[in-house]
Every structure is written in structure tokens, then in C-alpha cells.
Write a structure and sequence with these properties.
Layout lengths: L11 E7 L8 E7 L17 H14 L2 E7 L1 H7 L1 H15 L6 E5 L11 E4 L7 H24 L5 H4 L5 H10 L25
Parallel strand pairs: 1-4, 4-5
Antiparallel strand pairs: 1-2, 2-3
Helix pairs in contact: 1-4, 2-3
Amino acid sequence: MLLNCFQIEHLEAGCDEAGRGCLAGPVFAAAVILPADFIAGQLNDSKKLTHAQRAALRPLIEREALAWAVASVDNIEIDEINILNASFLAMHRAIEKLQLRPGYLSIDGNRFKSFPQIPHSCIVKGDGKYLNIAAASVLAKTHRDEYMEKLHLEYPIYDWKQNKGYPTRVHRSAALEHGLTPYHRQTFTISSPDFFSFSDNDG
């Protein structure tokens, strides 16, 4: 059973990102502050949920959260500062957009660049331990998926509607045959070994 938050002394925002391992598109991040009496339902790490479950949870989280925000860093910025720093930047942007200022941040993962004047804890697999991080993982994932589905209309050959920019066989084959789009991350060049580390799920 997931706990509501990491600590209870300060108002806490859970933070997570989506899209770090993609060949194309931005990285998205979300920050969520949940009420103490939040009813979790099926809420868990977004990777453990089906598309339908995430779609059902998103409006519940957005309606019931005390505050939530989603932000992104595009592929051009990713190439300039690298994907790790871009993930931190996306989380910072989401935190800055919150309508309530948290007194503490719980971050999914093992690294984070400190946000000014707000203490934080990094929690490995935190999206499977704390509801506020799980909620952030669902919002980051669903908002990013929605964005990639729109990009799919411009470049349907890469099957972004299905793979969301992750390196599936279809996506990789299309990139080899047709080249890269303006939405592809140039740090994942076709000649890079990382390009051939593919996944057959949408992350």
C-alpha cells in the first residue's frame, strides 16, 4: 500500500518525469500536492498501470489535488543540456507553476538538482511507494502521451501514437529508412549504440 507522502511536517509535492529514454519528443515532468485524505483507487507507478487506468486517474488527480502542474523540456533543449539536466529542469518548471508553494519535495529517482529554498528527498522507485509521486508519474505520462499523439499526425510513419517516441522496432526502422525529424533528439544519432537499444513498449 502506497503512503500519501514522504513526510508530514511540511506541505509536500511529489515530482516525477516521463520520456527520458525516448528518441523523439520532449521530456515531461509533473509536481503534485495531494490532500491528506486523498482516495487512491488504482493509483500506482504509471508504468504498472494500463493506458485506460492512467486515463481514468488523470482527471481524478487533477480534480482532487490541492495543486498540480506539468511542464516540459523540448528535444532542442535536451540536446543542449543533456537528458538528465533536462529532466531536472522540467521538474523545476513544474514546481514553479504550482499554485501552492510546497515546503518539501519528494523526487522519484536517486538524483535531483536542488530547487531554491525547498528541501527535498530523492526516493528510488518512489512512484511505487508514495501517492504524490505516483500521481505525478501519471500526469507526466498522460500529458506527454497526449503531446506525442498530436506529433504523430505530422509524422505518422514513426508510429508515435503507439510508441510515444520510445525506440521500438517500428520507430527505429522508420528512422533508419526515412531519417530523423525536427522532433528527434540529436544526441540519439542513428550511428549511436543507444539507438539500437530498443523497447517494444511505450514506457
